[in-house]
Specification:
By secondary structure, the chain is mainly alpha-helical. The protein has helices at 4-54, 63-84, 102-116, 124-130, 137-152; strands at residues 122-123, 156-160, 163-166. It has a three-stranded antiparallel beta sheet. β2 (156-160) and β3 (163-166) form a beta hairpin. The protein is extended.
Amino acid sequence: MPSVVGLLEQHELAARRRVDGLREAADRIQAELAVAEQEWQEWVIARRRVGDVLTPESGTVSVGVAQEQRDTDAQAAVRDAAKAKSQVPVWREGLAWSVLSVDYQRILQVAADRARLGQGQVTCQEMAAAFGMDVVPARVEALRSKAKRLVARGWLAEPGAGRFTPTRGVAGPGGGS
């Protein structure tokens, strides 16, 4: 007859193996998510570039000026692409929203608008709806991940589970209050 301690050790071992297996699965899914997000961003950039190419230019612009404009636009696209992959800096007094990628700025804008209008905190489902996204778990979780990153860096506060509001002192989009 097995001892009680032996039975407990067997259950502990089984539970630990399950946890290890789930951690491995979570790591694999996180890696797949990172690859999928990268591919998505590349498609977004490709679509923007094709849109730029297909947009007819004004016939009154000379060839030299048009080339300079395209060069300037290309440099701006590179800056924007880099910003989309940038880290979220830790918020400090006087730091403007422009240091954040557009996605993070949009999240802050929705939370700031809600707070300014006295409508309280915003949920990720409400953000998805405000952005015109399908309110499906994948989209909501992507927004939640970004909102949590903003909380961790001091841009947003999470007074209630899944409810976000700007941190006191975070300035508006232009850097002013």
